[in-house]
Please model this.
Amino acid sequence: MNTPFDPAAIAAVGIYAALCAFILFWLGNSTGALRRKHRVAVGDGGNKHLIRIMRGHGNAAENIPITLIMLAIAAMIGTPVFVLHILGILFVLGRILHAWHFIQDDAPGWQRFVGFGLSALVTLVLALGLAGHGVWLIFS
Model:
């Protein structure tokens, strides 16, 4: 099966990759600002807010790449563009909520829960969809 790349699908993934890059930039700048505020050059200096924001940044850096890779593969195998947009929007909204939770000194738990939930749902849907598609092609 030779599926040509749909430029609109690749462009859609590009939009969500760029938005995720902005989220990582936001987290990085927020971490840097907090380090400067508390005069911590390396590490967390034992500051609870800095520990919190660094963990949020780390979580984003750990989870964003694999989901974007799967979204790109989904685009390359012919997933409809509207599906890519739905998944991309939900993922970015989840990552924004999750990041916002960690940037704040004290934040309501629903932000982390909903942010993680949306992000994890999209990652799981993509993983199941790609695995299912791959198995289907092997046996068809």
